[in-house]
């Protein structure tokens, strides 16, 4: 069900060093960084894992919010998730589409739940 999770942090450099140190003994490492230039909003993020980033940390103007991404089997499911969420009262946080700064086939949609948590549906497969 879960594809990845993200924690908001207050000090990027401090948290990056911390998670590099604590995950190393477990065989997890830094897989990807997303720069402020890539996000376009001044935030930074780092993804840790084994091959694929499963655990993310990042700065944001919404420091108290969580990010949870649910795996979708195809792009149609991502679109259906987004439509259902909007109909249920979610706030748009990024409509369905390619997020090439993650990878070329990353197709996701983002909504804010009633408490402001960033909930995502994502499909990593190329369009069929």
Distance between the termini: 21 Å
Strand-residue fraction?
Answer: 35-45%
Structural class: alpha+beta
- How many domains make up the coordinates? 2
CATH superfamily of the largest domain: 2,3-Dihydroxybiphenyl 1,2-Dioxygenase, domain 1
CATH architecture of the largest domain: Roll
CATH fold-level name of the largest domain: 2,3-Dihydroxybiphenyl 1,2-Dioxygenase, domain 1
* Mean pLDDT value: 90
What does the oligomeric state look like here?
Answer: single chain
**Total helical segments:** 3
- Give the uncertain stretches in residue-range form: none
Shape: globular
Domain VOC: 1-124
Protein name: VOC family protein
InterPro entries: Glyas_Bleomycin-R_OHBP_Dase, Glyas_Fos-R_dOase_dom, VOC_core
Pfam families: Glyoxalase
Characterize the structure shown.
There is one protein chain. The chain folds into two domains: 1-33 and 40-58, 2,3-Dihydroxybiphenyl 1,2-Dioxygenase, domain 1, CATH 3.10.180.10; 65-128, 2,3-Dihydroxybiphenyl 1,2-Dioxygenase, domain 1, CATH 3.10.180.10. The chain is 23% helix and 37% strand. It is built from three helices and nine strands. It has helices at residues 12-23, 36-39, 75-87, and strands at 2-8, 29-34, 45-50, 52-58, 67-71, 91-92, 97-98, 107-112, 118-123. A hairpin with a 5-residue loop joins strand 8 (107-112) and strand 9. The protein is globular. This is VOC family protein. InterPro entries: Glyas_Bleomycin-R_OHBP_Dase, Glyas_Fos-R_dOase_dom, VOC_core.
């Amino acid at each position: 069900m879960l594809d990845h999770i993200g924690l908001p942090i207050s000090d990027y450099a401090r948290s990056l060093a911390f998670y590099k140190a604590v995950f190393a003994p477990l065989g997890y490492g830094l897989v990807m960084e997303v720069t402020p230039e890539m996000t376009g909003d001044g935030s930074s993020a780092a993804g840790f894992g084994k091959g694929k980033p499963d655990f993310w940390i990042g700065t944001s103007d919404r420091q108290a919010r969580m990010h949870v991404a649910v795996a979708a089997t195809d792009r149609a499911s991502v679109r259906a998730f987004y439509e259902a969420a909007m109909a249920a009262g979610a706030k748009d946080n990024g409509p369905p589409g390619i997020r090439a700064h993650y990878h070329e086939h990353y197709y996701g949609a983002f909504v804010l739940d009633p408490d402001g948590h960033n909930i995502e549906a994502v499909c990593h497969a190329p369009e069929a």
